[in-house]
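Entry 14. Ran structure prediction on the chain below.
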Amino acid sequence: LLNSDDTVLLDSLQRVPEAKVYVLPGVNPSAEAMARELFAVAAERFGEAVSSVRVWESTTQYGEYGKRGWP
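Output, structure tokens:
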């Protein structure tokens, strides 16, 4: 997971065939940013069935993103 602004690392990793790189546009890959990105992808694919996405950082901390006005 990389910030799209991290061009040096992005360029280096794109030269490694085995590297799997997911670029977050203009944001650092925090749990909150990952939840927002996953929500967008899931909502596009599954529509109204997706109400929120929660990404756990530890056993007690998470980042969450959901529809406006949620819950």
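The mean pLDDT is 92. Will compare against last week's run tomorrow.
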